[in-house]
Design brief:
- The protein has about 350 residues and is of the alpha/beta class.
- The protein has a single domain, classed as Rossmann fold (3-Layer(aba) Sandwich).
- The protein is built from 14 helices and 10 strands.
- It has an 8-stranded mixed sheet, with helices on both faces.
- α2 links the parallel β3 and β4.
- The chain is globular and about 45 Å long.
- The two termini are about 35 Å apart.
Length: about 350
């Protein structure tokens, strides 16, 4: 559906090149902590939220094209990249607050949020906490919609994780891990597809402060059993909000099964699966990713939030997955039932 509620100038009028200086990190101090971000372009706001252990650099190759039609803001979340790494609250809710505060300092009232992995959970939490400031959701291999997660992340959530991460940076250890990664890739294992990207994240943790921030963030969302927070129980609140899910069918970190569960739980959502891609589909096929984001933002109307509509959704709740609309409903499948049972103990605040 074409957006008719918010007039826009012709998109060709906004086309322009993005210089290297615009892609450089900028900084704002919020609540006493320095927060790094990249900002470029003109047009409707598009916020890119990276995953755990990553930074805004993960989007660097995409920002110039997106900035031709959007004002692109890509923050380094607190504890990540060039942002400060204090002993602080690294919960998903705190990250959503941090994104809200950064956007406020930049004079941006509402935006389309694009969230990858942990950033997908942050984007969903942002939409839940601040629906009036959320125009659309684009969730990329997002966390927060199921318990399963890569066993390596469950392992890193255990005591002694700092020592383990430190050892991975030793030259001999890196060689052994590199050989194991090559073997997995030769065998066609899904983990082999994502392992190089995940090892790059380890390289981005050069000191104890960075590793501690990473571990505190991980433990806020993962324990030895898997993901510990979920938005599955309140996905029905996305009714009326344009939502697109992008996933790799060989994702070894957050299985593609989660994409289908989230798609079922989010009324009117759209699902696009990248064949042969792992946890970073926007790296595997950036051209398709860019085309989908551009087409989705161009052809959907930004969500119009109203207090009354929100109240009705909360009271009604009939859009919740498996809630049913009458005695004849078949109800959810077994996997969805299990996720719903677990949701009460894993709900984010």
């Amino acid at each position: 559906m074409t957006d008719t509620s918010r007039p826009r100038p012709a998109r060709t009028a906004r086309l322009r090149s993005v210089g290297d200086r615009e892609l450089e990190l900028q900084y704002r101090v919020v609540h006493g902590y320095r927060r790094a971000f990249r900002m470029a372009g003109e047009g409707p706001a598009l916020v890119l939220v990276h995953g755990i252990g990553d930074s805004s650099a993960t989007w660097a190759g995409l920002i110039p094209d997106l900035a031709r039609t959007h004002t692109v803001i890509a923050p380094d979340l607190l504890g990540h990249g060039a942002s400060d790494k204090p002993r602080a609250d690294y919960s998903v809710a705190a990250y959503a607050n941090g994104v809200r505060d950064l956007l406020t300092t930049l004079g941006i009232e509402s935006a389309t949020l694009v969230g990858h992995s942990l950033g997908g959970g942050v984007a969903m939490q942002f939409a839940y906490q601040f629906p009036e400031r959320t125009e659309r959701l684009i969730l990329v291999s997002a966390g927060g919609v199921g318990r399963e997660v890569n066993p390596v992340l469950r392992l890193v959530s255990l005591p002694g994780a700092d020592l383990m991460l430190s050892s991975l940076r030793l030259p001999g250890m890196r060689l052994q891990v590199g050989l194991a990664v090559r073997l997995m890739r030769l065998l066609g294992a899904d983990l082999g597809k994502d392992a190089p990207e995940l090892l790059t994240l380890v390289d981005a943790l050069p000191d104890g402060t960075s590793r501690n921030a990473f571990i505190r963030t991980l433990r806020a969302v993962v324990d030895w059993r898997g993901q510990v927070v979920t938005m599955l129980d309140r996905c029905y609140l996305t009714a009326g909000m344009p939502t697109m899910l992008l996933w790799g069918d060989r994702d070894s970190v957050v299985p593609v099964r989660h994409a289908y569960g989230a798609h079922e739980a989010m009324p009117g959502s759209r699902l696009e699966v990248f064949e042969g891609a792992g946890h970073f589909p926007f790296h595997t096929d950036p051209a398709r990713f860019l085309a989908l984001v551009e087409e989705f933002t161009r052809t959907t109307t930004p969500a119009h939030w109203s207090r009354e509509h929100w109240r009705e959704l909360l009271i009604d709740g009939r859009h919740a997955p498996g809630a049913g609309t009458g005695p004849g409903d078949a109800g959810p499948d077994r996997a969805t039932q299990r996720d719903l049972r677990e949701a009460s103990e894993r709900s984010a605040t």
